[in-house]
Amino acid sequence: MSTSTHRSTDTSVSAPATSPFRWRVVDIVVAAVLGVAIGLVFWGWNAIGGAWFGAADALTPGFGGIAVGIWLIGGVVGGLVIRKPGAAFVVEVVAAIVSMLIGNVWGVSTVFSGIVQGLGAELVFALFLYRRFGIGVAALAGIGAAAAAWVFELFYGSSPNILKSVEFNAIYLGSLIVSGAILAGVVGWLLVRALAASGALSRFAAGRELVREV
């Protein structure tokens, strides 16, 4: 057998397989871009969602959670687009940092909330082994972020929700779940579909899937 054959065989055997969960440079760049863009959405929603939260809470204490979903959308969109471990967490946290840096009434607690909410969404994608990304999984990721937000607010702050009534916390949890499923999950899924249809996600599975469907 010739030396060239040995070299060819050795090369084919030793070539490392590329993990589908390994982050590419484009993944990092897109995660950053999504985080900044969604951070701007958070900033805009601070006034609208804040007013809606106050009005709903005045109507029924705890019902303000119905307005929270948009603040949970970063993790859902990040997970649906990049589809790799850590994507939901990274995009939600970057968005929270951007919202804080631009300026809001919550300050650094915005980042703490982003960390918790990002982990909540990330957990759902992990449970499906980063292989399922339909509207149902998106809604569950929004619910995961909402549940994490509820637990966080139960204990965090100068007036944690654990000091409030059981009725308040039950209503707040229910409204958070509905808002997370719809405003974060369904709206996030539709947003990713719209981005895919525009061709912006051609280097991602989310974009290629839409092309195959068409």
Structural summary, described in words:
The protein is 72% helix and 0% strand. It has 214 residues and is mainly alpha-helical. The protein has one domain (23-186). Residues 1-15 have low confidence and may be disordered.
User: Could you estimate the helical fraction of the residues in percent?
Assistant: over 70%
Average residue pLDDT: 91
Number of DSSP-assigned strands = 0
Number of individual domains = 1
Low-confidence stretches: 1-15
What is the count of DSSP helices, taking H or I runs of 4+ residues? Answer: 8
Residues in β-strands, percent = under 5%
Radius of gyration: 20 Å
Major beta sheet summary: none
Rounded to the nearest angstrom, the distance between the terminal CA atoms is 51 Å
Name the helix and strand elements from N-terminus to C-terminus, one letter apiece: HHHHHHHH
| Helix/strand class | mainly alpha
Shape by Cα distribution: globular
In short:
With 214 residues, this protein is mainly α. It has 8 helices and no strands. The protein is 72% helix and 0% strand.
Write out key terms for the chains shown.
214 residues, mainly alpha, 8 helices, disordered N terminus
Write the layout of secondary structure elements.
Blueprint: H1 3-14, H2 25-59, H3 73-82, H4 87-102, H5 109-127, H6 135-155, H7 166-197, H8 205-213
Helix pairs in contact: 2-3, 2-4, 3-4, 3-5, 3-6, 3-7, 4-5, 5-6, 6-7, 7-8
